[in-house]
Amino acid sequence: VVNATHLTLIVAFDAQRGIGIRNTLPWHLPEDLAHFKRVTSGHPIIMGRKTFDSIGRPLPNRRNIVITRNPAWRHDGVEAAASLLDALALIGGQRGFIIGGAQVFAESMDIADQMIVTEIGHTFECDTFFAPLVPGQWRESARESHHSKANGFDYSFVTYDKAN
Ligand code: NDP
Questions:
Q1: What is the CATH code of the structural domain delimited by 7-162?
Q2: Which stretches of the chain are assigned E, i.e. beta strand?
Q3: Longest CA span, the chain
Q4: Ligand 1 atom at minimum distance from 21 CA
Q5: Could you tell me the pTM of the whole model?
Q6: What does DSSP assign to residue 122?
Q7: Where are the domains of the chain?
Q8: Mean of per-residue pLDDT scores for the chain
């Protein structure tokens, strides 16, 4: 059994829990990108291969781990892992951040102990969604609400801790 107590899932979703469209983000929200950078810098990040393709390069100042079933997959500056558990084994007891996408979020929900969610108060066209939160599984521990001057919509940075 993996040490499940040091894993944070970080996601931005819209009013319908949409997270992506055509392998990119549905919105342009620079405030969220800055928040993502602030929160994850210095920590290992774990992502699905499609999310890596969508970003296109390793993110600086973080260990980048990509999960793929393709044993031949490789990219400069990135560590490949054959499964989520292999990725967690690579980081040992350190806190790691699961940064997406939908497939990897769904697989890591049960073992993560924290979620940092940017809840966007607007509905976008999306083809990829975050799974509904299991009632009682998460407890909100912090909420910071903002209004984007650039885009005109409201968004909140919300921290959820695993309940019990
Ligand atoms: P993912 O990024 O979750 O990548 C899926 C791929 O990861 C699979 O095809 C496979 O790669 C690999 N993978 C997944 N599970 C495993 C496993 N157990 N073992 C080995 N490999 C595994 O893809 P999604 O399509 O679900 O999400 C991408 C979308 O999400 C994009 O639109 C992106 O922009 C969006 N996104 C949004 C975020 C947000 O916060 N709003 C954050 C991150 C992404 P392979 O096929 O190579 O075997």
A1: 3.40.430.10
A2: 7-13, 18-20, 45-48, 64-67, 79-81, 96-98, 114-120, 128-129, 138-147, 154-162
A3: 46
A4: 32
A5: 0.97
A6: S
A7: 7-162
A8: 95
